[in-house]
Write the C-alpha cells for this entry.
Amino acid sequence: MKKTVPFILLLIVMIIALIGSSVHLTNVKDAKIDTGDTAWMLISTALVLVMTPGLAFFYGGMVRKKNVISTMLQSLSCMGLITVIWVVFGFSLAFGEDFHGIVGNPATYFLMKGTLGNSSWGLMPTIPLILFAMFQLKFAVITPALITGAFAERIRFNSYLIFITLFIIFIYAPLAHATWHPDGIMFKAGVLDFAGGTVVHMSAGWAALASAMYLKQRNQPDHTPARISYVILGTGLLWFGWFGFNAGSAGGANALAATALATTTTASAAAAMSWIFFDMSRGKKPSAMGACIGAVVGLVAITPAAGYVTVAHSLVIGIVAAVVSNLVVIWRSRTNIDDTLDVFPCHGVGGMVGMVLTGVFANKAVNPGNTTGNGLFYGETHLFMVHLLALIGVSVFAFFGSVILLRVTNAITPLRVCLDDELIGLDQSQHDEEL
C-alpha cells in the first residue's frame, strides 16, 4: 500500500490540473507592463532559482561523505515539491484574497487562475502577475531547503517531504502573507522586510532550532566535511543568486535595484572578512569554511535591509552579523543542541540581526516607499519598536509552530532514521546511492 501512495498523489494532482486548465485565462486585467522591468525580473527569478542548487553544494560539502547525496537531494527535492504546491494553492495562500491579515484565500489563484496575460500584482504593477508568482516561488523553494542543514545526517526522506509540505502551508505562507501582502498584519503595522529576512531566514532558522532539538543529537556528532571545494562552489552560487533575491525584490530595473545590489555586495564582503578576522583574534587559523559561512551570514543579514539602508550602513550590518553569528555558533557548540550545520546561528540569528538593524538604519531617502519612518540611528523610535515586536511574534510563531508540525509528522511516520541506517549513511540507507 505504501508504494502506491506516491502514484495516487500524482494521479490526484493530474486530475486537479485537468479540471482547472479551463480557467487559466480568466480575470485578466489591463496593466502597463514594462519590458525592461520584466526582463530584469525574469533574470532575477532565474538567479534566485540558482540559489537552491548552490545551497545543495554549500550544505553537501559540509556533511560526511556518506551523507552528501542525501543532503543535496533534500535541497533539490524542494524545487519539485514546493513548485507543485505553490502552483496549485500555495501562491494563493501567500498572496490571495486576504483573510484577517493572516493568510490568503487558497482559491484566489488556484492553479494560477487569472495570472496570465496582462494581470499584475499591485505592488509590482510593471511586470506580469505570473512572473511575480514565479519569482515568489523561488523564495518559497529555498526556505525549507535552508532548514535541512539542522537535521542533516539523521532524517528519513519520506518524513522530510511531509514536514516541508506542512511547513510551507502553515508557517511560510502565513508569514509571507502577513509581511508582503498589502492587507497583511505586519505589512500594515509597518514592518520592513525587503527580501525575506523575516519571512525566509527567521522562519527557517527557528524551524531549524526546533528540528535540531526535537530530533536530538546524532550518534556521531563530530565529523569532517566531505568536500570544502563544494562549500566554496556553493557560496559562489549563493552570492551570485542573491543579487536576484535582493535586487530583484525592487520589482524592476531601477535605481532601487542598483542600491540593493550594492548593499548586498558590501555586506557579504564585510561579513566574510569579519568572520576570518574574528576567528584569527581567537587564535584560529583563517579558513575557507569560515570565509564562506561569513559571506552567507552577511547575505542573510542584509536581506531585510537591502533596499532601505545606505551602502555605508550595509558595511556595519555585515560586520555586526558576522561577529554575533560567530558568537552564537560558539555558544551552540557548547550545548547539546545538534544543529548539524549551524542553521539557527547563521540564518536565524543573521536574519534577526538584519531585522533589528533595519529598524536602526532604515532611511526614507534611500527608499521613498518606506512609509513607516526612519530608523533609530536617525532619531526615530517607531520603526525600531515595530521591528522588535515583530521579531518576538515571528520567533514564537515559527518556533512553536515548527514543533507542532514536527510532532504531527512524527505521528504520521517516524522522522528519524534507525541507528543502523544512520551509521551506514543516508546516501545508502535512504537512496541506495553513493558519492
Remarks:
- The radius of gyration is 21 Å.
- Strands lie at 98-99, 103-104.
- The CA atoms of residues 56 and 72 lie 4 Å apart.
- Residues 20-431 form a domain with the Ammonium transporter fold fold (CATH 1.10.3430.10).
